[in-house]
UniProtKB/TrEMBL annotation:
Entry's transmembrane regions: none
Response regulatory domain segment(s): 9-125
Pfam families assigned to the protein according to its UniProt record, in alphabetical order: Response_reg
Keyword tags: Phosphoprotein
Listed InterPro entries: CheY-like_superfamily, NreC/VraR/RcsB-like_REC, Sig_transdc_resp-reg_receiver, ST_Response_Regulator
This protein's name: Response regulator
The species this protein was found in: Pseudanabaena yagii GIHE-NHR1
SMART domains linked to this entry: REC
Length: 125
């Protein structure tokens, strides 16, 4: 990306505080990302998407209150332009996540390195 290209607004959704904070820090250091906000579950994610209008949502699939499968579908129904990267340790990767009902644009395994997540974010934006 060149400096004239707009930077991405990212929302990280994960119920684990350490994961949220680590991803927020790591992603905020990337030149292509302008802002990184966080949410602790799918219900909060939907409210923050409405308020913040992020370009990309990094969504954990397994969360209390509202899981990532439900939240991703609701977000895509209301905001089809928002890209969703599932970030999960769920078995089977993207194909399994989609067959389980996740409405996502990309999948990144939680065991992958930060660069892999960044590449997934860039690939959908």
């Amino acid at each position: 990306m060149t400096s004239s290209t707009k930077t991405l607004r990212v929302l990280v959704v994960d119920d684990h505080e350490l994961t949220r904070c680590t991803l927020q820090l790591a992603l905020s250091l990337q030149a292509c990302i302008g802002s990184v906000e966080v949410a602790i579950n799918g219900k909060e994610a939907i409210a923050k998407v409405q308020k913040l209008e992020p370009d990309v949502v990094v969504m954990d699939l397994h969360m209390p209150v509202m899981d990532g499968w439900t939240a991703s579908s609701e977000i895509k129904n209301k905001y089809p332009h928002v890209k969703i990267v599932a970030y999960s340790a769920a078995d089977g990767g993207k194909a399994q996540a989609i067959s389980n009902g996740a409405n996502i644009d990309a999948f990144c395994d939680k065991g992958a390195c930060t660069r892999s997540l960044l590449e997934a974010i860039k690939s959908v934006s």
